[in-house]
Design goal:
CATH architecture of the domain at 84-188: Orthogonal Bundle
Strand order of the largest sheet: 1-2
Helix content: 40-55%
Structural class: mainly alpha
Distance between the termini: 98 Å
CATH class of the domain at 84-188: Mainly Alpha
Order of helices and strands: HHHHHHHHEEH
Bound molecules: heme C
Strand content: under 5%
Oligomer: single chain
CATH topology of the domain at 84-188: Cytochrome Bc1 Complex, Chain D, domain 2
CATH superfamily of the domain at 84-188: Cytochrome c-like domain
Radius of gyration: 31 Å
Number of helices: 9
Largest sheet: 2 strands, antiparallel
Amino acid sequence: MSVRTLNLSLAAFMVVAVVLSFAAARDFSRPNLEIMPDMVHGPTYQAFEPNPSTADGKTLRQPAPGTIARGLLPFRYELTEQDALRAGEELVNPLPMDDDAALARGGAAFTVFCQPCHGPSGAGDGMVSKRGFPPPPSLLLEHAVNMKDGQIFHVITLGQGNMPGHAAQVSREDRWEIINYIRSMQAAAPAQPAGTEPK
Ligand code: HEC
């Protein structure tokens, strides 16, 4: 048999095999043919089970040194005034002020996480403050207006004085959105009398 005839008959065989495999009525309720069963049913180890196949005997592998979990960027600042000021110098707000969707999202997040103490307009008259929690200074005063975005990010992340940190409940992106929202409130607020700001 010549090579050409062999190729042709192989091709014909393939076509027939493919057509047949599509045409055959398959019963999807039954498992398919298992060609290599021990690959289909390999031994599975639970994450914290000992494992004879790894060098350290553990199933869960150690991440490579220096690995950072996705979305968990380190925040290299301490809860000190000095570090708050440093954050103000170093951190850059990635969101432009004219991003209306971000501003709307910031407003929604402010309502949930900040308004209870800081009040709907940021004046420091939230419901929690009215019920006995030491009221925060107004976010519309010159002190807060002059705070750099990165410094406010530091306050939201780690807290300040009686204000608890919000790193666990407000995502990084939402923190910047909230900051833009505060800026928009400050821009819309009437000028505050000088000398009333805290500190
Ligand atoms: C449990 C009440 C509470 C909540 C919730 C809260 N704050 Fe505060 N906040 C305070 C208090 C109290 C202060 C004053 C802290 C101090 O003693 O310096 C403060 C201070 C601040 C300051 C500094 C103002 C200045 O002029 O020094 C900023 C900025 C701020 N908060 C933003 C926020 C934002 C944004 C949120 C929401 C993510 C938020 N806060 C949620 C109570 C709260």
